[in-house]
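seq:
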Amino acid sequence: MTFLNKPLKVVIPAGASGIGKTIAEAYLQEGCRVFVCDVSDKFIGSFREENSNTFIEKVDVSDYAQVAKFFQHVDKETDHIDVIINCAGIAGPTAALQDVEPGEWEQTIAVSLNGMFFVLKEGIPLLKGSSAPSIINIASSASFFGFPLRSPYTAAKWAVIGLTKTLAMELGGAGIRVNAICPGSVSGERINQVIEADAQIQGKSAEEIKELYVKHVSMKTFVEPEDVAHLALFLSSDYGRYISGQAIGLDGHTEGLSTDL
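struct:
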């Protein structure tokens, strides 16, 4: 399936693994030029082996100086970018709020929210040379609900929606569209780790916890990474040229996030 009528220049933080990698590869398949950064040497190495012509650097998005340097390098490679897809984020601790350590809270916010701010602060000026500029922030179904035992993650993801809607207002006059994709549980290593942690706290098996997650989804299934990539392509294409300021659920309809605590 082809979404784009022309190749785009796309920046994808955390694009060497998980959802970010799937999104990066989807844009590469569309003939786009992709600029990736990631914090993991392992994932950077494997991504570089599979996509040898792609620009990729090691960056911790919670460190503003590293993000600024990355965009300086991108600026030297191209006269503009067309799309920013903010994928960087961490699951954070699985614990009752009173058991969350201050450092765990700070790390979750630093990566999942501050990192997004740093990327946008440095990336927005490069979007202004594009004829079809678009920002896509990866939020979560947890952006719409309370999520027991996941307070740092939930706080960050609610904030992403506020940031998205505010930026859509600030940048709309410049023709820059800003949207958030809000996936439900996405199949992969990260959700498996969250399920294992939840199972330990509740004294249940991982399979029981997964069943509880699925129970609160109307379509009774997890989302696949490719689904997120396809929605990103659509939003950055001409098909989505008047879509902005939206927080779009991609979750099979989440009815709630309680795991029957």
